[in-house]
Amino acid sequence: MRMACYAVPTLAPKSLTIIQTNLQHKQIAAATLRRVLEEDNKTVALIQEPWIRNNKICGLNNISGKSLLQIPVEKPRTCIIMPKTINASLINQFCSRDLTAVKINSAEDQTTLVLASVYMPGEDDIPAKELAELIQHCEANKWDVIIAADCNAHHPLWGSMDTNKRGEQLTEYLLQTNLTILNRGTEPTFVTSRCQTTIDITLATHKAADLVGGWHVSNEPSFADHRRICFQIHIKPPDPIPYRNPRKTDTKIYEHILTKKLSDFEPADVTLSVDNIETNVQSLTAALTSSYEKACPTEASCHQYYGT
C-alpha cells in the first residue's frame, strides 16, 4: 500500500466520470443521483445502500443509456450503474449483498479493469471474505482494480481525524495488498448535525491509480449523510472500427452495378454437377457483396471505451 499523497494527473480529453455514493436507502437521494446520471452518458456510479422497496433496488432502473448491475439477492446493499457503451460483466463468484464487482476488458491492450462497490457493515470483520478473495484473484491475474467502499472505519490515512479499531484492522490488511488509498485531504465524506468524519474510501492498484484524476469530495447536495466522491478515469479509446450501415445504401448505384455484373454473368450448367451449382452460388454472392460494398461506403464507428 502506498502511504504518500497521490498526485493527480492533468485531465485527459477522453475520460469516464465516476461517482461513488452511499444513498442510505433514501428515495430522494436515489432520485437526485438519477438526474445526474441522465445528464451524462459517460458517468459510472458505484453505489452503496441504494433505495430498496420490496427487497429490490428502486429509483435507478431504466436510466437511458445505462445498465444497473447487481446480483439477485434480497435487500442488496451495493450496485453499479454503467454506461451501455462499456462492455462490463459481473464477476459473480465474488459478488454478494455487500459487494458488486464488474470486469471491463480493454479493447486496445488486452488489459482488465475491475470496478467494485463495497459496503462494510460496522459489525462485520474487516475485510469481508468476498472482498479479500476478489483482491487476491485480481492480484493473481494482474487485473487493475478500483474499489469504492463505505468502510465504517476511521484512520488519518484516508482523512479521518481519529482512529478506531476497525480503522487499524483495515490499515493492517491494506498493507498486505498492492492497493493505494486515493483519498486526499481531510474533507469529510460523512456529515451529520452531530459529527463529521471520513468513512468512505477509494482504493486502487498502482496502475489503476495512474488512470485516476480529479479525486474530490463533492459539494453538490446528495440528500444523504454521505457526500459523493467524484473522480475521472482517463482512457485512451481504441481506433474506430469501419462499418457499413445498410440503411445508407444508395439503391440506385447498387441496382446499376448489380445489373451490370449480372449481365456479364455466365452461369455454369447446373445439370452437370453439384460443383457447378456451388460455383454459380459463389459467383452470385460475390456480385451481390461487391455491389453492396460499392453502393454503401464504410464509416467510422463511435468510440467505446473498454470492451469494444
UniProtKB/TrEMBL annotation:
InterPro entries: Endo/exonu/phosph_ase_sf, Endo/exonuclease/phosphatase. Pfam families: Exo_endo_phos_2 (PF14529). Residues 114-229 form the Endonuclease/exonuclease/phosphatase domain. This is Endonuclease/exonuclease/phosphatase domain-containing protein. It comes from Loxostege sticticalis. The lineage of its organism: Eukaryota, Metazoa, Ecdysozoa, Arthropoda, Hexapoda.
